[in-house]
Structures are given as structure tokens and as C-alpha cells.
Amino acid sequence: MKFTSWEDVQKTLEVEATEFLDRAYGIELDIPIVINSRLKSTYGCFKFKPKTREPLRIEIGKNYIENQKWETVIETLIHECIHYALYVQNLPYRDGHPLFEAELKKHGSHSTGTVKYHGKVVQYDCPSCGKVYQKKKRYPRNQTYKSGCCRQPIRFIGEKIV
């Protein structure tokens, strides 16, 4: 899908989530959908206050939205909405629980860890053997990291989209 701004994307995600929760569970979306540019390895998450059990927000990664198919982004949003819906109903809402996984299948969403990463990666190589390492985040420049193969200091190659 083509959007003119991140506000449009956020509004579209909120509409999708609201419609899904009403249709599937008969509940309202009382928390915001937030696009988080800091999420790299986590594609989406449902946040709440543990002490008060107050739901806070659903976050979806900006990098994830930019590099995934829109249908996959919506599946991830549904995944997080199921966390939210089960949480507010005081049902088991954690990944891996049989009830949660059954709800994912029922609504056509994916389990955690089953979506292949697409997006920007940072590449490093081992100067000794040439093995290339791809990371989602760049290592701090003020520290020396060694390769797992030859135990030599790795060097930065560049960034690419996978």
C-alpha cells in the first residue's frame, strides 16, 4: 500500500485493529497503535503496566513496516491485538500458550519467530578468513568486536537491504 505520511499508516493500523477486535472479540481498542523506529528484532509488541495491569499500547516497528509486505504487517498487528484481547479478558495471552496459539490459527495470524526478517542489515567481515556477518544493529564504534571464526577484530563493510 502507498501512504503519504506515517500518520496515515498509524491511522490505517488503528482502523484495522479496531475492526478486528470488534469483529473477533466484541471489544474496543482503548489503547494507541504506535509506530516505533527503535524496534529492530521485535516486529511488534503489546505493552502494559505489570503492577496495575493497565494496557498501554501496541507498537509496530517502522523498519518492519517499510520492508515487509502489507499483508504480513497486518498479520503482525492481529497477533498483537490477540495479545491485547486475551489480556483484557484475563485469559492466557503469552506466546506459546495453547489458547493463544489456537487463537492465532483461528484468525489467520502467525506465531512468534515464524516471519523471515526483511530490512536493513549491517555487514561485517573477518579480515583473516573473509566470513561475512550480518547484524540488525550496528556495533558501537568505540569497542572492538572479534569474529567467532578466527577471533580477529571484525571490520565494517556496509549496510544492505535483505
Protein described:
With 162 residues, this protein is of the alpha+beta class. Helices cover 33% and strands 22% of the residues. It contains four helices and six strands, in the order αβββαααβββ. The strands form two sheets. The protein has a three-stranded mixed β-sheet. It has a three-stranded antiparallel β-sheet with strand order 5-4-6, with no helix packed on it. The radius of gyration is 19 Å and the shape is elongated. The model has no long low-confidence stretch (mean pLDDT 92).
Defining traits:
3-stranded antiparallel beta sheet, 4 helices, elongated
What percent of residues are in strands? 15-25%
Question: Which regions contain 5 or more consecutive residues with pLDDT less than 50?
Answer: none
Q: Per the principal axes of the C-alpha atoms, what is the gross shape?
A: elongated
Distance between the termini: 20 Å
In helices, the fraction of residues equals 25-40%
* Total number of helices: 4
Largest sheet: 3 strands, mixed
Q: In brief, what are we looking at here?
A:
This protein has 162 residues and is of the alpha+beta class. It is built from 4 helices and 6 strands.
